[in-house]
Amino acid sequence: MPVRRQRNVKVLATLGPASSSPEIIRALVDNGADVFRLNMSHGGKDDMRRRHATIRAIEKEIGRPIGILADLQGPKLRIGALAAPINLIAGQRLRLDMDPSPGSGDRAPLPHREIFAALAKGRTLLLDDGKIRLIVTKAGKDFVETEIQVGGLLKERKGVNVPDTVLPLAALSAKDRSDLDAVMDVGVDWVALSFVQRPEDILEAKKIVRGRAGVMAKIEKPAAVDRLDEILDVSDGLMVARGDLGVEMPLERVPAIQKRIIAAGRLAGKPVVVATQMLESMITAPTPTRAEVSDVATAVFDGADAIMLSAESAAGDYPVEAVAMMNRIAEGVEHESLFNKLVHQTDIEIEHTTADAISAAARQVAETLNAACIVTFTTSGSTAMRAARERPLMPILALTPREDTARRLCLVWGLHCVRVEDVHDFQEMSDRAALCALEQGVAKPGDQIVVTAGVPFGTPGMTNTLRIAFVPG
Fold first, then answer.
1. What are the residues whose beta carbons fall under 8 Å from the beta carbon of 129, sequence distance 6 or more?
2. Whole-number Å distance between alpha carbons of 302 and 265
3. Strand pairing partners for 415?
4. Running DSSP on this structure, what letter comes out for residue 418?
């Protein structure tokens, strides 16, 4: 296995029935997976614990940190029981209500009082991943009358989306709270929160997490897009959840929203994951379509921190091949001469802080000197994330004494994380940086490297030092 990936964007692979064995998980790591997603919508807590233990065993074996992200299910809104599938025809009427008896004809149960509390005349309801569209013509406290705008065959338990309404629902369901306690007990590095509508949703999750993991907001609802800046302020990262986003918003808007979210995360110095249907055809085929390759490449060109595989690696026929393909696409894009120009189209506004000034200067000095790499000493991860925000041309080596920091940073663009002991003075800092750069294959004897750290050493959030060091011959 190469010591360092030959790309900056990270690959996030979802584990599932097709990728639960130690042999397959190790093959996913060998072929490019940097972080693993545990999808709490599928499988139980025992499955989660087994996969978590396998990842940590492989991490110990290869001697390199591996990140783990737990993706919470969020509230699930579904149609109730039906006596038989209902054929809905455009222009006809459909009543939805709280009556639990099986639906038929022109009526179906909708066992979610919160939806009725928020709906009003003229609002839209989407059923079965947006295949069926209803417009509310009359709303009551426990029912709505709707006109079918786009029909189809409605089966029981199909999902319900309410795109133009903020629902009085917390992002954390009872199941999510139980799952969150479980993943915190075993120790994950990131928690992805579904059904985010407002910044308060993130703050609620962060109260439970208490800094033990990064909390990532999944942007999948129009309300979250409308309040993106506020949500970003309180989140540790963002996920462009294009599946639900493409159901609740016009599809033609999703590419621009993706670019906006990536740019916003970059400006804030927080990681952004692009997810859903990136190599969808590889669920059943050994190679992707040309359109899928272009889709992955676009996310890389835009400067996303990570690109994610869902069913492709969790339940597909070719999980290892999908990861390997994602790795090859990313490497190919980043080695194009056009890449550096496009990835720097987002102008970074440097804040008037010492840490931002040092990070910006590190990139400028390193590129001026044609340095082999930038080495950051980091305790909390903030120094390394500031370095990544600059998107330098050379590798970034993130050295930290904390295992949890190294794992969390595995999701961040360009960071190659190594766990080291704390340094205590400037000479030790330079010597340790040079030795690690040499050992990790990012520098050779005689090269110059640029080193950033915080003094006093080991103090989180104190990036205030920049040094130029030489790798001894």
1. 159, 161, 247
2. 11
3. 396
4. E
Look at the alpha carbons of 406, 407, 410, 416 in this order and tell me if their dihedral is positive or negative: positive
Q: How long, in residues, is the chain?
A: 473
In angstroms, the CA 261 to CA 63 distance is: 33
How many of the other CB atoms lie within 10 Å of CB of 430?
19
DSSP state letters, 211-239: TSSEEEEEE-SHHHHHTHHHHHHH-SEEE
Facing residues of 154 across strands? 86
445 three-state secondary structure: coil
pLDDT at 369: 96
Q: Which amino acid is at 276?
A: T
- The residue extents of the domains of the chain are 10-74+171-338, 86-161, 354-470
Task: Return the CATH fold of 354-470.
Answer: Pyruvate Kinase; Chain: A, domain 1 (3.40.1380)
Please state, in angstroms and as integers, the Cα–Cα distance from residue 205 to each residue in 192, 202, 472, following that order: 10, 5, 48
Contact at 8 Å (CB) between 467 and 451?
yes
Separate counts of helices (H) and strands (E) for the chain: 17, 21
Amino acid at 388: A
Q: What confidence score (pLDDT) does residue 365 get?
A: 97
CATH 2.60.120.10 fits 10-74+171-338, yes or no: no
* Catalytic site positions: 37, 78, 218, 276
Alpha carbon of residue 67 to chain centroid? 12
Token pair recorded at residue 293: 């390759």
Q: How far apart are CA 80 and CA 196, in angstroms?
A: 24
Q: What gap in Å lies between CA 260 and CA 374, rounded to an integer?
A: 28
**pLDDT tens-place string over residues 336-362:** 999 988 888 776 777 788 888 999 999
Integer Cα distance of 406 and 418 in angstroms: 7
Q: Contact at 8 Å (CB) between 102 and 83?
A: yes
Fill in the DSSP letter of residue 421: P
What does the pLDDT read at residue 4? 86
| Superfamily (CATH H level) for 86-161 | PK beta-barrel domain-like (2.40.33.10)
Among all chains, which residue has been given the structure tokens 């940086």?
433
Is 354-470 in the same CATH topology as 10-74+171-338? no
User: What local confidence, expressed as pLDDT, does residue 357 receive?
Assistant: 92
Regions of the chain with pLDDT less than 70: 1-3, 347
Q: How far is CA 129 from the centre of its chain?
A: 21
Best CA proximity match to 15, nearest among 319, 314, 321: 314
CA angle 341, 324, 49 (to 5 degrees): 115
Q: H/E/C letters for each residue in 238-286?
A: EEEEHHHHHHHCCHHHHHHHHHHHHHHHHHHCCCEEEECCCCHHHHCCC
Separation between Cα atoms, residue 21 and residue 15, nearest integer Å? 10
